[in-house]
């Protein structure tokens, strides 16, 4: 009988990451509307960023492990079947929300921070979203209901090239990853030095600054860190894994994580450090049975299945609720505590309701079609873990 593969606990981790992004964007919406907010407070800002890092590292880890397994089983990696599976997982929800965000929400909700700038950039922004390059829209004003998709665009662009990387470099993956990450880090340093050499306000200074922003947002290095973790697990590098599962490593990672969470930091190579911390968390949650945080249970598995829907629908839900609260009540000034409780609670309930309906009636149908394109058998705790969800049957422990 063929063994299935599945990494426990990661669905629950997905849910909490989506939840942290939700908190992050509630405060951002309050900031954009000129309401009292905590936007800019390090922990609020970093909470969303750290959650996004978990998604990136997790994607690189799971996808690379699955590719290595497929290469072992079939001797190759079927690029077209993988892209088909990705399209079935992503496109229905993604394009639904893009169309809603451009053609429906602006007519239902009047938030000047979004609506007043949409007309001047409508077709330019619509085009980059439709061709799956929403990360380029970060150079333009945010689109209500869709601006969070920039990270989905980065992941998709990574997925276009990564099957080919693993196929041709599976036996030399570690050297490739080192060079890959080094190019990303050195490229940032080169762009920063080039910007410093230009006159502030000049056309070249502006273009280089935009290029640097796009380069920094192209967080392939964090997915590459996840790929490193997949290589270690797939090839059973027990010495390294035992070091990752060691209590001293865990304690040190937690201390560094907390320092970064409460402070604003950025330096060349910072994103690699963040990725390494996320990888330590991911490997310990999934494979270290002595790790104190255990997220493997039916409840968290189900919530994790909703995580993509949560990510896709939450900004539109926040916009709807915040618009209702500010248009028809005076809670902002008369009862700020009630306003915030209503905003957070209402936005979360709307997000979860839409996510449940989407998972049952939209995503579930397309996810069921993916089975015919699957190359490696996996045990799924709910469909939405998609083709990335895998299980190691005998996890390593500290």
Give your account of this protein's structure.
The chain is an all-alpha fold and about 400 residues long. The protein has helices spanning about 10-30, 40-75, 80-105, 105-110, 110-130, 150-170, 175-195, 205-215, 220-235, 240-245, 245-260, 270-285, 300-305, 305-330, 330-335, 335-370. Helix 3 (about 80-105) runs parallel beside helix 14 (about 305-330) and helix 11 (about 245-260) crosses helix 12. The protein is globular. The two termini are about 30 Å apart. The model is unreliable at about 380-390 and about 395-398 (pLDDT under 50).
Distance between the termini: 30 Å
* Portion in beta strands: under 5%
Number of helices: 16
What percentage of residues falls in helices of 4 or more residues? Answer: over 70%
Coarse shape: globular
* Strand and helix order: HHHHHHHHHHHHHHHH
Largest sheet: none
Average pLDDT over all residues = 89
Q: Runs with pLDDT <50, length 5+? A: 379-390, 393-398
Gyration radius, in Å? 21 Å
Identify the quaternary structure here. single chain
Number of strands: 0
What is the structural class? mainly alpha
């Amino acid at each position: 009988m063929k063994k299935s593969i599945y990494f426990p606990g990661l669905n629950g981790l997905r849910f909490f990451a989506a939840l942290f992004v939700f908190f992050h964007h509630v405060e951002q919406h309050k900031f954009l509307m000129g309401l009292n907010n905590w936007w800019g407070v390090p922990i609020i800002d970093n909470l969303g960023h750290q959650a996004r890092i978990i998604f990136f590292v997790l994607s690189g880890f799971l996808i690379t492990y699955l590719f290595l397994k497929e290469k072992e089983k079939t001797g190759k990696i079927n690029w077209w079947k993988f892209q088909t599976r990705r399209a079935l997982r992503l496109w229905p929800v993604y394009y639904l929300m893009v169309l809603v965000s451009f053609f429906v929400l602006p007519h239902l909700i009047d938030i000047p921070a979004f609506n007043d700038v949409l007309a001047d950039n409508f077709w330019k922004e619509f085009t980059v979203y439709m061709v799956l390059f929403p990360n380029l829209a970060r150079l333009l004003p945010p689109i209500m209901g869709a601006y969070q998709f920039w990270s989905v665009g980065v992941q998709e662009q990574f997925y276009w090239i990564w099957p080919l990387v693993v196929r041709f470099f599976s036996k030399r993956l570690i050297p490739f990853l080192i060079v890959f990450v080094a190019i990303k880090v050195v490229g940032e340093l080169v762009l920063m030095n080039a910007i410093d050499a230009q006159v502030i306000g000049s056309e070249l200074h502006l273009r280089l600054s935009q290029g640097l922003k796009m380069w920094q947002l192209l967080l392939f290095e964090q997915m590459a860190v996840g790929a490193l973790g997949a290589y270690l697990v797939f090839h059973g590098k027990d010495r390294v894994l035992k070091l990752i599962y060691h209590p001293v490593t865990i304690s040190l990672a937690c201390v560094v994580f907390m320092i970064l969470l409460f402070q604003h930091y950025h330096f060349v190579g910072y994103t690699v450090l963040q990725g390494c911390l996320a990888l330590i968390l991911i490997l310990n949650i999934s494979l270290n049975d002595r790790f104190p945080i255990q997220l493997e249970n039916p409840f968290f598995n189900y919530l994790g299945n909703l995580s993509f829907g949560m990510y896709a629908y939450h900004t539109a839900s926040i916009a709807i609720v915040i618009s209702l609260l500010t248009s028809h009540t005076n809670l902002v000034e008369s009862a700020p505590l009630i306003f915030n409780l209503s905003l957070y609670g209402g936005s979360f309930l709307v997000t979860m309701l839409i996510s449940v309906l989407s998972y049952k009636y939209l995503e579930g149908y397309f996810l069921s079609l993916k089975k015919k394109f699957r190359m490696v058998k996996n045990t799924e705790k709910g469909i939405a873990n998609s083709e990335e969800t895998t299980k190691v049957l005998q996890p390593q422990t500290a």
